[in-house]
Design brief:
Number of helices of chain B: 8
Radius of gyration of chain B: 22 Å
Largest sheet of chain B: 5 strands, mixed
Largest interface: A-B, 63 and 55 residues
Number of strands of chain A: 13
CATH architecture of the largest domain in chain A: Alpha-Beta Barrel
Strand content of chain B: 5-15%
Distance between the termini of chain B: 58 Å
Order of helices and strands of chain B: EHEEHHHHEEHEEEHH
Largest sheet of chain A: 6 strands, parallel
Radius of gyration of chain A: 23 Å
Oligomer: heterodimer
Structural class of chain B: alpha/beta
Shape of chain A: globular
Helix content of chain B: 40-55%
């Protein structure tokens, strides 16, 4: 099979994995020192998702038959396999031309988890050792592989990840009977340990080898199983808090396969995915907790309003906030203020009192913020105590017509604050 | 009233600012060369490295280093009234002193900061969007046409990333180029436009990249409006994956 065809097949098999990451270390190698530019995206594909890595499978052969997966054993898609040389050669060619920041290598499970993991490691070893590749490597760890292979993965890669795939053990059991929750969580725990130990080593000696300096991430599929957003966000929060994950990615279930165990959906739940990312951002950058956003009574994120606005409408007693006095943490919680806006407000008010007009100049989205702030005691909204009236106003466009829905979708990297 | 004209260099601009800032009736002649203007006779300011350095030092002493950083970034911007903006900014610096750059709500300070940020953002964007192609002799060649003059801001990034290679960054809009050969970097201000043909391998590599790029998009979630937001059409003609085989 020619290389072009292989690329098409193995990219099609890898494209459902979300990733957009270049963080962490600096590596020296042939041709240069790669200094990671945070958030350096090289391109955006036609679905609006960022492309910063050559995201590809080593093979789409798979012994498993997971219901949701395009590469499952029973699928009659064309199969292909790349050699470590092909992976390394392509990565080097693309990297030199500044097409990419690095490689994202995943794989179907060929023969066994250990066998596959060894192939993956051979490919990245070829890159790091033979080609002295200084760029970024994100390597998938195959659930159920040996812990020594997990350690090797962390040695060569900048970021490692094990996909949790489904938000509960019951769903995993039902849709991916050959994978076990344990097989996923064990390597994650092992990675958390290895990464922490590696960091400690580096603290003691600058010459210690880097150990997955970009940390670990994971991904779960949204909409293929019945878990609520509350369950999903609780899971994310514990992954961040307990295992120190850098990122949890949410992937709207794309009904690329038909299986009686899967829900009959026509379209991927993109808006739900977007809301989960916004909520995730609120946890990581805005000081929110899951319990503030969701509870047993309302276990699902609102599809009409972003989670910060929903929270604010439910907690109107905490508003309006006086922008000339409120601490930074409270400014962050105002709908229409992002991190940058909140920082600018804190800085600008040192120089003088701010008015509502000033806020717009500082980057606030006033059509939302106006209901939740005062500036010098002046309130610009309607009724400050009537959530229904504010909701109705927020739904209106500039001319009193219903507002256009936002450009949502694959904006995986859109900070909640930029749009919330 | 007098409009100050300079030679277009950064030193020239700073000298003009230094001359104009202490003359309350002075203006900057934006968009040099200035036309004959009956009402604002032009005053030509000579470039003088020493004077420029002194003025920047004074600005730093009065209002902090951030002011000078912003002036340097704004200098690279494409804004038509850039010189007037910077004169107003410099005047504010001497009036407001240390607190100058906290005054983000002040229209002039706000615009100076925003303009600087716009330049930085485009530079950041091009670290990703810029593409090299391999020429016959192995040199990696890149053409860019950025809105702002970002070449000086991205050169160091590629100097580190591509230390072992020979490469050229060519801003076609401004006729500027950064050339890296044998580990040495040269800045060229009028690059001859004859570029050698691409290497034998180049066509195939670019084609494989396009195959990857087309395949990585999920058809069920096509969103060209979102894609356009991140990769504006104006940049696409120099980006490999938006070209044809």
């Amino acid at each position: 099979m020619d290389l072009r065809r292989k690329i098409e097949i193995l990219t099609a098999g890898a494209r459902y994995d979300a990733s957009c990451a270049s963080s962490g270390s600096t590596r020296s190698g042939a041709g240069g020192r790669a200094e990671r530019v945070p958030g350096c995206c090289h391109s955006w594909s036609a679905d609006g998702r960022c492309v910063s890595l050559l995201k590809i499978l080593l093979t789409n052969l798979c012994v498993y038959d997971c219901a949701y997966c395009v590469n499952r054993r029973s699928s009659d898609c064309p199969r292909a396999l790349l050699t470590p040389d092909e992976v390394a050669g392509l990565t080097m060619d693309f990297y030199r031309r500044n097409y990419i920041e690095g490689l994202f290598l995943s794989s179907g499970v060929a023969r066994s988890p250990d066998y596959t993991m060894e192939l993956l490691i051979a490919a990245v070893r070829r890159l790091r050792v033979d080609h002295k590749f200084p760029g970024y490597i994100h390597l998938k760890v195959i659930p159920g592989c040996d812990r020594r292979l997990v350690d090797l993965a962390a040695l060569y890669a900048d970021r490692v990840s094990v996909n949790i795939e489904l938000p509960s053990a019951a769903s995993l059991e039902r849709l991916a009977p050959e994978k076990s929750r344990d097989g996923v969580l064990k390597p994650m725990a092992r990675l958390a340990e290895t990464i922490a130990a590696g960091k400690e080593e580096r603290r003691r000696s600058r010459n210690a080898p880097p150990c997955a300096p970009g940390g670990q991430s994971t991904q779960l599929i949204v909409g293929a199983s019945p878990e609520s957003d509350l369950q999903i966000m609780k899971l994310s929060q514990s992954l961040y808090d307990k295992l120190g994950l850098r990122r949890v990615y949410y992937s709207a279930f794309v009904p690329a396969t038909t299986d009686s165990r899967l829900p009959a959906v026509k379209e991927p739940p993109l808006r739900r995915e977007h809301r989960l990312y916004q909520a995730d951002w609120l946890l990581r950058f805005y000081g929110f907790t899951t319990e503030e956003l969701l509870d047993e009574k309302c276990p699902c994120l609102d599809l009409t309003f972003d989670p910060k606005t929903v929270w604010a409408l439910r907690n109107l007693d905490r508003f309006p906030v006086e922008v000339n006095k409120a601490p930074y943490e409270e400014l962050l919680r105002v709908p229409g203020f992002g991190v940058l806006t909140a920082k600018r407000i804190v800085r600008a008010r040192r120089a003088g009192r701010l008015s509502l007009d000033d806020l717009r100049r500082l980057g606030a989205v006033m059509k939302r913020a106006v209901y939740f702030v005062t500036a010098g005691g002046i309130y610009g909204g309607l009724r400050r105590d009537d959530p229904a009236a504010i909701r109705a106003k927020l739904l209106e466009g500039p001319s009193g017509r219903p507002a256009q829905p936002e450009l949502f979708g694959a904006a995986a990297e859109t900070p909640a604050g930029a749009s919330a | 009233m007098s409009a100050y004209v300079h030679d277009g260099s950064f030193t020239g601009l700073v000298c003009a600012l230094a001359a104009a800032v202490s003359d309350p009736a002075a203006e900057m002649a934006d968009e040099t060369p200035a036309q004959d203007d009956l009402f604002a006779p032009a005053t030509e300011v000579k470039s003088d490295g020493r004077k420029a350095a002194d003025f920047l030092e004074r600005l730093t002493a009065v209002s902090g280093p951030e002011t000078v950083d912003n002036i340097k970034l704004c200098f690279l911007s494409k804004e038509k009234d850039r010189d007037s903006l910077l004169l107003a900014y410099a005047r504010r610096a001497f009036a407001a002193g240390k607190g100058l750059n906290d005054r983000l709500a002040d229209p002039v300070v706000n615009r100076a900061h925003r303009t600087a940020l716009a330049v930085l953002r485009e530079a950041h964007r091009f670290k990703g969007l810029l593409r090299f192609r391999e020429l016959e002799d192995g040199t990696l060649y890149s053409e860019i046409e950025p809105d702002h003059n970002i070449l000086p801001l991205i050169t160091n990034h590629f100097r580190r990333r591509m230390a072992g290679f020979n490469w050229i960054l060519h801003d076609k809009k401004r006729g500027l180029a950064a050339m890296h050969a044998g580990g040495r970097l040269r800045l060229v201000s009028a690059l001859e436009a004859s570029v050698p043909p691409p290497s034998e391998k180049e066509k195939r590599t670019a084609s494989l990249w396009r195959a990857f790029f087309d395949s990585v998009a999920i058809k069920e979630r096509l969103n060209p409006a979102l894609q356009r937001q991140f990769v504006p059409l104006k940049y696409r003609k120099n980006i490999t994956e938006f070209g044809e085989d």
